[in-house]
Amino acid sequence: MFAQLIALVSAASIVSTVCAHGVISSPPRRLPGPAFEAACGSQIYSIVSSDQYGNQQQEEQNINSETTSACELYLCKGLEYADNTNNVQQFTANQVVPIQIDLRAPHTGVANVSVVATASNSVIAGPLISFDPAYSTSTAIPANQTSFSVTIPNLNGQCATAGECVLQWWWDARSIDQTYMSCVDFTQ
């Protein structure tokens, strides 16, 4: 019995490692909370809360009757500004912002960091940095793909109010149809 329990725990550990992929670890990124659960439903909330490193397609596969039109999975994986008001950063024009990516499982693709206007979910500056290929499975991942800096441009008042803009790290691995994103709320 004990050996079977150890085997199950080991298998669960392997599965959780395989399911985890990548997020911004610094500066503080959007995290799931009650507003996210209200918009996207308890099933999607449970998935993201248990594995914030997962891909957006996993969320899409779990859309159900609890998922509302306010759940914008293509904007910060649906994570809500309302849950993250204490994480808003203040960036000035030409400020160099260091970014750390916590990568748990690579998948070859492309990646970039851009400034996104949340009202329209459109890129208003960037990409500020891009990688192609990104997070390759066939070569060593360069250190500058997990620890790098971006320079914040002058956004001419477009991001003056908290919640209007995010700094978004976006990574797309088309060969396996998986997209990962993390967002940092900021003002300028």
UniProtKB/TrEMBL annotation:
Keywords: Copper, Disulfide bond, Glycoprotein, Metal-binding, Signal
Signal peptide feature range: 1-20
Any Pfam family the entry gives: LPMO_10
Cofactor(s) the protein needs: Cu(2+)
A molecular function GO annotation: metal ion binding
Database matches in Gene3D superfamilies: 2.70.50.70
Domain Chitin-binding type-4 residue range list: 21-186
Family membership: Belongs to the polysaccharide monooxygenase AA13 family.
PANTHER family: BINDING PROTEIN, PUTATIVE (AFU_ORTHOLOGUE AFUA_1G14430)-RELATED, CHITIN-BINDING TYPE-4 DOMAIN-CONTAINING PROTEIN-RELATED
Protein known as: Chitin-binding type-4 domain-containing protein
Organism: Serpula lacrymans var. lacrymans (strain S7.3) (Dry rot fungus)
